[in-house]
Structures are given as structure tokens and as C-alpha cells.
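[Automated response] Your request has been received and processed.

Submitted sequence:
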Amino acid sequence: MRLAVIGAGAVGRSVVELAGEYGHEVVAVADSSSAVVADASGAGGTRGGDGGDDAVGVDPDAVVARKAERGIVGDDDPADALAADYDVLIEATPTTLGDAEPGFSHVTRALERDRHAVLANKGPVAERFGDLRAAVDDSDGEIRFEATVGGAIPAVSTVEDIDPGHVTAVRGVLNGTANFILTRMAAEGLDYDHVLAEAQDLGVAEADPSFDVDGTDAALKCVILANVLSFGAADDPADARERRTRR
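Generated structure:
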């Protein structure tokens, strides 16, 4: 499949690097300010548009190296990546609260083009799940969002396979950063600031770790699981956070 990767953080870069090992081809990559799009001849960094079935992928090593060295992935505009000829859009931009933008618009644009979308971004699935489902209903594309809860653990697909009437409780360690920090502090007696810095160096925690350490990330994941169980009728993250603080 041809992939367009929107977001060049740890998740997006990993997709770019690993896609070829799974038989997929990355034809476009975008970060917040730049993009690289393969054209039909295979050259990266040109505006390919809807380049056709002969388009070949961008050079993943070059994309990752350029991001590390210059802070950009290419010389094109991010909109060019959204307009590229891909089969699946990978939405890996940072999670935002409220309107879940720009991730929500990225996904709905893909669906409007009858493309599929895979989300690592929790915002659209937690904040606007009903709107996403409506967009899917009007499209030949589908969405998947396993990466929003549990990473490589098949939490979402497991819940999807269970009749909601059979579920009495969902328990789990929903935030890997908090789990890493608390485990290191308890096992080795290290202070919080030291372990947080270590988590950031390892890529376990973001540069701004507030989503993880203040419980927002866990609340979002709770809402996503509840949305899957209730087909979109769950409370929003603000309600989830309020209930958590009352406990």
C-alpha cells in the first residue's frame, strides 16, 4: 500500500523507517511546516499531486536524516502531502483537545477522497468520534486507531470483538510514561525529575509531558475504549477527568 504520513515525531518517523519492511511504500511525509512528496519518477521533494499508480516512494533515510539535521522533512508544503496519491493516510500529529484539529481535518479529507486512515492521534477518536463515524459512513474508506490505546497491544481490536453487554469492567495500565516513571522511582529510588528526563531522552515521554503526568492521556484512552464499547455514546474527556478527580 502507498502511505502518506502526516506527523514526523517519533511515531511518524518510525512508520517511515519501517514501512518498507512490511511491503508498504511511503509516497508522502509532512510535518507542521514542510513536506516531501514522491513524483512518478521516484524523486522525493517534488509536488507529485495525484501522480498515478507508477509513483514510487520517498527515500526514508533521507527524510529521517533531514528532519534530524534541519528540522524539516522536505521543501514542499504540508498540503501537498494531503493531496498526494496514497491508499492510506497515517495521522501521527500531536494530540490536541477541543476541536481535535488539525488531525480531524486530515482524516476527514482522506475519507472524502475514499482513502483509508490510521490514527495514532487520540484527539479525533476521543473528542469527535461521532463525527468520524459519520464521515466513514459517507466514504468508501475506513479508519483504524489501534495505536491510540496501548500501542502494539491489541486493546482496541479486543474490545471491538466483545459484545458490550459482556463487559463489566476494563482495567489496565493506560499510560506507559507514568508506568515507566513510577516503576523506575520505586525500583531504584530515583527522583521524579531525573526519571522524567530519562523518559524524555528515551522517547517514552514527550518534550511537554503534561498530557502523560497529569492524567489527560489516560482519560483520553478511557474515552476511546468507552466509545468503542458504546459505538460513540461515551462521555467526553472532560467528563472522564472530572470523574477521576472526584475519586
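Summary generated for your ticket: The beta strands are 2-6, 25-30, 35-37, 88-91, 116-119, 143-144. DSSP finds twelve helices and six strands in the chain.
If you did not submit this request, please reply to this message.
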